[in-house]
Amino acid sequence: MKVSVRCMVPRDVVADAIIVGVYEGAGQLTSEAASVDVLCGGLLKQLIDKREITGKLNEVATIYPPSQTVRKVVVVGLGVADKLDVEKLRQAAANGIKAAAKGKVKSIAAHVLGAGASSINLEDAAAASVEGALLATYSYDVLKSKQEEKTLSEVILLCVGPEAICTIEQGVKRGIVMAEAANLARDLVNAPANHMTPTHMAEKAQQIAKECALHCEVLERSDMERLGMRALLGVAKGSAEPPKLIVLRYNGNPGGATMAFVGKGLTFDSGGISIKPAENMHLMKNDMAGGAAVLGAMQAIGKLKPKVNILGIVPATENMPAGNALKPGDVITAMTGKTIEIISTDAEGRLILADAVAYAAKLGAGKIVDIATLTGACGVALGSVYSAVITNCDKLAQELQSAAATTGERYWPMPNHDEYREMIKSLVADIKNSGGRMGGVMTGGLFIGEFVGETAWAHLDIAPTAYTESEKHYQPKGATGVATRTLAALALLWGEQS
Ligand code: BES
Ligand code: MN
Ligand code: ZN
C-alpha cells in the first residue's frame, strides 16, 4: 500500500473515501473535521447536533456526501480529546480504515487523526494512524487458491500547512516500518509448519538480512555439536527437519554495548514423547512466534537504524516423537555445562532457549530479552490480555515497560523469588525442565534465566497473546505479531540512551 502526504483541503481531494475523526463532547468540530464537512454540505455537523454521531471512541458512521470527487465519508470517534493516546489513535485508524475500505475502494484520504491534540505530537499521531491502518488491513491468504480481491492501494494523508509535511512523513515512515515488521511476524506465524520449517525460517532471516543490511549467520547441527548445545540438539533429535540457530546482527553503535533478542523458534510442537492431546495440536505451528517477533523486530531495526548494537537470535527446530527422540527421565548437558533432567519433553522451549541465551551471553550481550510461547500456564494466569515478564533486572523491566507504552502492548511482571527456583531442582541433575503445574510461568521463565550467567535478562511469555481467534481493532484473526513492535521500540529507546 502506498502512503503519501499531501497539502490540500478535502474539497480538492479525489479519492473513494475520506476518514474524519470527531471528539466526544467537544461542542464543535476541529478545523480538519470542519473542512471535511464542507464536502458533506454540513451533514456531519447536523448528525452530531442530532446526536446520531457522538464521537465515542471507535464509533464508526458512514456519510454519503453530495460530492463528485469523494464517494463516502467515514466518521470515526476518537473519544474525549483530553484522554486521547497513541493506542486509541491506532484503534480509531483501524476501525476507520476497515469501514472505509469496504466496497472495492481503491484510495482513502484522511487528515492525521488526533493532529492538534495537546497530549500527542504530530509525528507520533501520524505514526499511530498509519500503523493502525496497515495492521488492520493485514490478511493471510497466500495459500487460498482463490484470493480475495484487494483493491485498496493508496492512503493519502492530508496536511494543513507545508511546514507539517516533514514531521508527518517522519511519522509515516516509522508507522510503516513498525506495521510491516509486525505483519512479517504474522506471516511467519500464520504459515503452516510444513512450509515454515527451521530451514525456511533461516532462509527468511537471510532474506531480511539482505534487504536491511544486517549480518546473518546460520549455525547448523554440526556447529551446535561443536559448541556443545545438547539442550537444543536434544529437542531436535526426534525431527526429520534439521535444526538451525539463526544469528542476525545489527551494528548501529560500533564499540558500544550489544543487546540480544532471543526468540523461541519451535516450528511445530507436538510435545514429543510427552505428546500433546490431538485437540488444538494444529495451533502448535504458532510455537515459533517468539522467533518471528525477533525476525520482524530485526527488520524494523535495520530500517530505523537506532544507535545501538542488536543481536537477533532464533533457535529453530521441531519437537517430534520418534524412536530416537528425547525421553522423559533423560539427562542432557547444556552448552554452559549444566545438566538437565527431562521431566516432560513438552517443556522443550526452555531447553532450546537455554542454549540460545547462553550463546547470546557468549557473544557478549550486555542485556538479553527472550521471547517465547512458553507456557499454557501463562494464559491461565493472565488470559490473552497480558504477556508475562520475568526478569533479574528491574531497570531492564522498566525499559521494556517504557517501550510497551509506545506500542500499546501489555506486559505484566511476575515474581522471581528463589522459592520458584527450588521447584526446578532435580534429584539426579543440576536442574529439571518442569516444576509441575503450579507456578508454571515462573518456573518456566526462571529455568531460562539459569543460563544467562550474570547478564541482565528479561523473559517474555507470549503464549496467550501470540494468536487470537477473534478480530479486534487492528488485530485480525490469527497470528498477532505480538512483541515485534515492542522489541523494535526497545531498540529505539536504547539508541536514544547512547
Ligand atoms: N508451546 C507450549 C506452550 C503453549 C501452550 C503455547 C499453549 C501456546 C499455547 C510449550 O512448549 C509447552 O508445551 N509447555 C508446557 C510446559 C509443561 C510441560 C511444563 C505447558 O505449558 O503445558
Ligand atoms: Mn511444548
Ligand atoms: Zn512449545
Could you explain how this protein is built, in words?
- By secondary structure, the chain is an alpha/beta fold.
- The protein folds into two domains: 2-139 and 149-179, Leucine Aminopeptidase, subunit E, domain 1 (3-Layer(aba) Sandwich); 192-497, Zn peptidases (Aminopeptidase), CATH 3.40.630.
- It contains 15 helices and 20 strands.
- It has helices spanning 31-39, 43-49, 86-100, 122-136, 165-190, 198-212, 221-227, 230-236, 289-304, 349-362, 376-382, 394-407, 418-422, 440-449, 484-497; strands at 2-7, 15-22, 60-63, 70-77, 107-111, 154-159, 215-219, 244-251, 258-263, 265-269, 309-319, 331-333, 339-341, 367-372, 387-391, 411-413, 431-432, 456-461, 467-468, 478-479.
- The strands form four sheets. Strands 7, 8, 9, 10, 11, 14, 15, 16 and 18 form a nine-stranded mixed β-sheet that branches.
- α12 (394-407) links the parallel β15 (387-391) and β16.
- The longest helix is centred in the middle third of the chain and has 26 residues, at 165-190.
- It is elongated.
- The two termini are 34 Å apart.
- It binds ligand BES, manganese (II) ion and zinc ion.
- Ligand BES is lined by residues 269, 287, 344, 346-349, 373-377, 434, 440, 463.
